[in-house]
Amino acid sequence: MTVKSLIAAVTQQEDLNFLLTNRVPRAALTRFMGWFSKIENPLVRDASIALWKLFSDLDLSEAKEAHFKSLHACFTRELKPGLRPFDPDPAIVTSPSDGIIGAHGLIRDGELYQIKGAPYALRDLVADPAVVDTHRNGCFVTLRLTSSMYHRFHAPADMTLEHVSLIHGDVWNVNPIALKRVERLFCKNERAVIRTHLATGEPFTIVPVAAILVASIRLHALDRVLNAQTERPLAYPCHDNVRKGDELGWFEHGSTIILLAPGEFTFCPNVAEGARIRAGQPLWRRRVAAGPM
């Protein structure tokens, strides 16, 4: 048995995995990782990336740059041009990021779920009555970004960013083991709520959720990093027109994005729980083709 397979076997033991990634000083570890990952020392960088590869399926062959100044630069790496083409069909809303598809379906009277049998209230997730009213009977999809994945996220369609709010919270792990054990986990973790409308006028909301080791989210529309140290105001009006595929920002490790869409959108055939998806691949088909922004 290789070291990597031994580590995988150990981390797949649910009790141990939950203990090691949750029953620890989560906030302190996350702050430490934020500091440590930015150390620009070749020995620290190389040892950290080598250790990371032991614990994950990290593949840097798609990275735009062959060398990184720090672990943080590796986390937030860009890809070589053309590796994430976005579906050009204006009726298709694409995945904004690489990820593993989690819970998805209809929002029923303001209730959605993190896994089967574990519901949570939309009002607790977004803390915004206007967003709740807009998506009360809409649909949603959950995308989980693992630590080894490409961490940048993009506009899933032509859209206008209208408002961003930051909700301070915890940094629980967001893996399936934690989702089975921590009720309303997404409503407890640090998160941003990005209100937008699509080129055809439909409301669309993007909710990036932080997790242990990743409590920082960079948003280009605000030209700033949002994290636990962000002070009031925590609400930011904006008016930023973006095209499908434009980069919106990035996570600084790996986490979750929840997308909220109108109920009349239909899921594309490739959308299935547990399936891997790449930025630019189809998520939803909308009934009205996009017009000019």
List keywords for this structure.
24% helix, Glucose Permease (Domain IIA), alpha+beta, 4-stranded antiparallel β-sheet, 2 domains, 293 residues, disordered C terminus
The top level CATH class name of the largest domain? Mainly Beta
Class inferred from helices and paired strands: alpha+beta
Number of domains: 2
**Which CATH architecture of the largest domain would you pick?**
Distorted Sandwich
The mean pLDDT is 91
Physical arrangement of strands within the biggest beta sheet: 12-7-8-9-14-5-2-16
The biggest sheet, with number of strands, parallel, antiparallel or mixed sense and barrel status, is: 8 strands, antiparallel
**Helical run tally:** 9
Total beta-strand segments: 17
